[in-house]
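Problem 12. The chain below contains 247 residues. Write out its predicted structure in token notation.
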Amino acid sequence: MHKPKGRLTDIFSLPTDGSGQPQSVLMLDQLTHVPEIGDVLRVANRNLLITQVDRQRMRSCLTGWPLIGLGSIGVLVNEPTDELKTLARHPNRLWVTWTPKSNLPWHFKTDDLPTFTRLNEDWNAHPNDVGLRLKKNGDELIARMKPNPYAYRQYEKVPEISVSFVNCSNYRVTSVNDEGWYSGQCRFSGLAPEWGEFYEISGDTRDNMNSTPWIKMEGVGGKHFHFYLKDETLEIKAQDWVLKSKS
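Solution.
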């Protein structure tokens, strides 16, 4: 079984709790799983019981300060900060693992994992566009959306882009959004490199782990395309894809 891991970025102290116990916050990012209260964190050669975890959906840390970066989180342990900072000077301190108190998601229990290839290297959907528009034309599925002009300035005057899926055999729109992805509701949570991107997924994509029914099309393409959008996720089985923009 693989253990979840994250990168340790900072350690700082909080005032002692009501019983006089020391309190230290460890900031983690690049998480492969979200830790829970009761999990045992291993830093260098020391096991630390996690007593509190950020409310990640609120994106605020235990100090009340906003977290920087999606996927970042803080965990609280009842250990003196000075001792932990000594551990943090260990050569491997940047990466920590932990032992969960409950069952892990499926992808920690197998070596037969799908691979992800990001396809939208220089474009993306608008982060606030809630109006995914789909059109079927024989074996072609066309997904229309607003582009993201903030990250990709070349789209500042482009009102709409469309992704055409050629020789499409099946598609579905699931309810997985960003909150669902970060809270583990997607079968690829913690496995896909990032939420909000467009991927081709190779290997066993575990389609039966999502109950949303597929919509049949006239094509026979079998490549799996996966697009995380603002309020939903578009999954497609097709032969290929083409990006077009409306100027």
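Discussion. The chain is about 5% helix and 35% strand. Students who got a different answer should revisit the alignment rule from Section 12.3.
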